[in-house]
Amino acid sequence: MVQKYQSPVRVYKHPFELIMAAYERRFPTCPLIPMFVDSDTVNEFKSEDGAIHVIERRCKLDIDAPRLLKKIAGVDYVYFVQKNSLNSRERTLHIEAHNETFSNRVIINEHCCYTVHPENEDWTCFEQSASLDIKSFFGFESTVEKIAMKQYTSNIKKGKEIIEYYLRQLEEEGITFVPRWTPPSIAPSSEASSSCKKQAASLAVVVPDAAQAEGLGSEALSSPSGPPEPTAGTPDDKLDADYIKRYLGDLTPLQESCLIRLRQWLQETHKGKIPKDEHILRFLRARDFNIDKAREILCQSLTWRKQHQVDYILETWRPPQVLQDYYAGGWHHHDKDGRPLYVLRLGQMDTKGLVRALGEEALLRYVLSINEEGLRRCEENTEVFGRPISSWTCLVDLEGLNMRHLWRPGVKALLRIIEVVEANYPETLGRLLILRAPRVFPVLWTLVSPFIDDNTRRKFLIYAGNDYQGPGGLLDYIDKEIIPDFLSGECMCEVPEGGLVPKSLYRTAEELENEDLRLWTETIYQSASVFKGAPHEILIQIVDASSVITWDFDVCKGDIVFNIYHSKRSPQPPKKDSLGAHSITSPGGNNVQLIDRVWQLGRDYSMVESPLICREGESVQGSHVTRWPGFYILQWRFHSMPACAATNLPRVDDVLASLQVSSHKCKVMYYTEVIGSEDFRGSMTSLESSHSGFSQLSAATTSSSQSQSSSMIS
C-alpha cells in the first residue's frame, strides 16, 4: 500500500532571501541532523544572469534501523538523489528527492517548495508532499514502512527547529537582511553586486541540500521549513500550520496530512459544499484517521443533512410547546475545559408521555436541533477561550429513573436517536457525566450500550448515589460556581423540571404516523430510483422563453446520465413504473417515465443539453436558459458501461463497476426550480437564488463552476 503525506502550508514571517540564507547553512552537513552524513554535488547549472541555479546532489544518510535489518539488507548507509531548482527572479525553490538505494524494492518520492506568501512579499511559505511504496524488502515490508514513517514524521518537526536555529545564528552575526536578486544590467557595478551574486548562488546550493536532509528519503532534509511562529492568512485557500494549531488543535504530521487530503478530495468532488475543517476532522477522528472510512461516513452524512435540511433546523423549526414545557434538558454554561455544558434531567422526564404526545420523529428532530446548537456553541467557545473546542460535555441526572422509563416504544425512540447522532455527529461528545444512577440503570445500560461506539463509551463517567460529591466527582470537571442547584450547587439552573405530560395531549397512532411522515418529507429535495431501461423523468412547463431551469442533485448510488429534452407537446400523464419488474415500494424509490416509447428523438422531442455522465457520490448543480416555450423533460438514465471497441467482451473495469450496482439500480436526490431570467444572478451560480440546500457546515461556498460534476449551460 502506498503511504502518502501532504503538509499544511508553513508560513515564515521572514523574507524569502533570509530563509534561503538560513537554509544554506545546513550544508554540506548539519549537526542538528545526525542521520545526514554527507552529500556530493553530481550536477550543477547556473544561468548567466545568476537568476537560475539548479543543483543535483547525492546525499548519504545513516538511517536509524535495527542492526539485523541493515545486515540482512547488506548496507550501512542509504543514498538519495535530490534536485533543487532555485529561481531568484520568481523567488521560488523547488526540491525533488528520490531514493537511489533499493530503488527496485522501495520507491520514495518527495517534493518541497518555498514560495513568497501571496499576500505579504516579506513572508515565505513552505509545502511538502511525499509518497512511500514498499514493493518488497526481504519479508520486512511492514517493519521498514513503520521505521520510514516514524523517522519522517519526527524529522518534519525537526525541520522547524533547524530553520529557527540558523535564523537566530544569522541574527547573532548581525545579518537580518539579504538583498533580492536584481538583473545584471540594473545592478550597480560594485563589490556589493558581486557579493549579491555570490549570495544568490550560495543560496541555491544551500536550499537544495537542506530539503533532502529532512525529507522522506533524507528524512531530515526536506522538512526544514516548519512554521516558526504564528501567522495569519492562508494562501490559495490552503491550510496553514498555525491555523490548524489555533482552531483544530495539536495534530501529528500524518493527521494533518489526512485532513488536507480529505479536504482536497471534497473540494474536487463536492463543488460548493465543503464542510468546515472541524467537521471533517471529527469524522477522521471517529475512524482513527482512516481516510477511506472517514470519507464514506462523511459523504453519507452530508447527503442526509441535505435531504432533511438539517442545516436550517435552528432557523426554520420551532419545537412544539410540549417539548418546551416537559423536555427536562438545556444548555448551562461550560465545564472547566471550556466545553459547552448540556444538562439533562432524564429521571424527571416523562419519556412515555413525550412519545405519545409528539411521536418519535419530533423527539429526534429536537435532539438534532440540540446537536446543531452544540456545534454553534463550540465555535463560539473556540473564539472566547482562544483554543480549539470541538465537543461538549453532557451531564445526565438519573434521579427518579424507574421502570416507567423502560417502556418499549420509548427505548426504541432512544435507540433510534443514538443511531442517528452517532452517524452524523461523531466526536462531538467530549464527556458524559451520569449522576445518581439508580438500581434500574444497569437494565437501561444493557439495552443501549451495544448501540454506542467504543470511543464514545470511554467518555462515560457513572456515579451512583452521592458519589459525584466526593473525590474524582463533579468538582473535577465543573467549577463549583456553576454546579446546578438541584445537585446541591450554587447556580440556578433554568432547565425545565419535566414532569408528567397530561394525557389530554396524547395523540392517536394515526395522527402520530401522519405527523412523523410530514416532518421528514418537509424537504425541497426528492428521491428517485433509476433502473436499467427505466429512467426517472420530470416535466417542467415553460411559458416565457428565456426562463432559467436550475437543478441540484446528488448521485447517491450508481452512475447515471443526465439529459434535458424539449417538446412542443405535453407527454401523457406521468406513469409511475408499477414495478412489476423492479418492485419499487418505498417512498424514496420514486420512478416516473414521461417519454412515450413511440416518440422519436428529433421528431417528437429534441435534446437541448449534451448528455452529462455523473458518477456515484458526485454533487451536480447547473442551469439551462430556455430558448422556446413548451415542455422540458429532465431525465436521469442508468449509465451502461460501454464494451471495448476492439472486442465484444466487456472490459475488466466495466465488469467490476457493474458488480457495484446491485440489480442495475441507481438512486438520485434532486431539486429543481424555474427562475425568471431577470431574477437569475448569472449562469452556473451556486443556486443561492433557488434556495439550494447547501450545507451551512461549508466554510466558504464557492460558485459551482463548469466542471466534470457540474452541468453545461445551453
Automatic annotation (TrEMBL):
Keywords, sorted A to Z: Cytoplasm, Golgi apparatus, Immunity, Innate immunity, Phosphoprotein, Signal transduction inhibitor
GO molecular function, one term: RIG-I binding
One Gene Ontology term, aspect cellular component: Golgi apparatus
Pfam family, one: CRAL_TRIO_N
Residue ranges constituting the GOLD domain according to the UniProt record: 521-674
GO biological process: innate immune response; negative regulation of RIG-I signaling pathway
InterPro entries: CRAL-TRIO_dom, CRAL-TRIO_dom_sf, CRAL/TRIO_N_dom, CRAL/TRIO_N_dom_sf, GOLD_dom, GOLD_dom_sf, PRELI/MSF1_dom, SEC14/CRAL-TRIO_domain
Residues in PRELI/MSF1 domain copies: 3-175
Segments of this protein annotated with the region Disordered: 216-238
Function of the molecule: May play a role in innate immunity by inhibiting the antiviral RIG-I signaling pathway. In this pathway, functions as a negative regulator of RIGI, the cytoplasmic sensor of viral nucleic acids. Prevents the interaction of RIGI with MAVS/IPS1, an important step in signal propagation. May also regulate the SLC18A3 and SLC5A7 cholinergic transporters.
Subunit structure: Interacts with RIGI (via tandem CARD domain); the interaction is direct. Interacts (via GOLD domain) with SLC18A3; the interaction is direct. Interacts with SLC5A7 (via GOLD domain); the interaction is direct.
Name the UniProt record assigns to this protein: SEC14-like protein 1
Organism listed in the record: Mustela putorius furo
